[in-house]
Write a structure and sequence with these properties.
This protein is of the alpha/beta class and about 190 residues long.
Length: about 190
């Protein structure tokens, strides 16, 4: 099953979408045996439906009752209400700094907080610091703390898998493809 998941990888992240009242989250409903809704589109990511089905079967094998809910658009995926559970999500970093990803997407002005899925006061304070500070050591410490909050103490998301990226090129081209979507054509990347 793991090999199948690796072959079918197309989603970057799946977000545990917490409702505003944590007593009605999919995780709590799941503890009672009720289905945990997994909202997906069928055409945004390559192999999106197949990947969702593989994930649901993996979860089922360990006793989680997850139910795919195919939606027509992102408005339906993001809809507020007490039926939130899981949803697809790509987390991109347009430039090489934590503000381009963790602050942009999980901070106070990020989509996740704007639609009421998750919030954390300490994280928000650290976001402001990261956006304004030029002290590299202090920024590194702040970023480390943000990851501890978002990934362990008060989870904002969970990384289930990353995209598999394949690039074809002629053997004669002495260029090294990146293991990501970015195509690095800088002079130093020719081998």
């Amino acid at each position: 099953m793991r090999k199948l998941l690796l072959l079918a990888m197309s989603l970057s992240f799946v977000l545990a979408a917490w409702a505003q009242n944590k007593n009605i989250t999919g995780v709590v409903r799941g503890e009672k045996g009720d289905p945990i809704p997994f909202r997906v589109l069928n055409n945004y990511y390559t192999n999106q439906t197949a990947t969702a089905q593989v994930l649901v079967e993996m979860w089922r094998s360990v006793g989680l009752n997850v139910e795919i809910q195919t939606k027509e658009n992102w408005t339906q995926i993001m809809e507020r209400g007490n039926q939130r559970g899981l949803r697809d999500w790509s987390n991109s970093a347009p430039f090489n700094d934590p503000v381009s990803s963790i602050v942009n997407q999980h901070g106070p002005n990020g989509q996740q907080q704007q639609i009421g899925e998750w919030q954390n006061a300490e994280m928000n304070t650290l976001c402001e610091f990261l956006e304004t500070s030029t002290d590299r050591a202090a920024r590194k410490t702040a970023f480390r703390r943000m990851l501890e909050i978002c990934e362990r103490e008060d989870p904002a998301y969970t990384v289930l898998h990353q995209n598999a990226t394949f690039t074809a090129k002629p053997k004669a081209l002495r260029w090294k493809a990146c293991p990501a979507f970015a195509m690095d054509f800088r002079p130093g990347n020719y081998v």
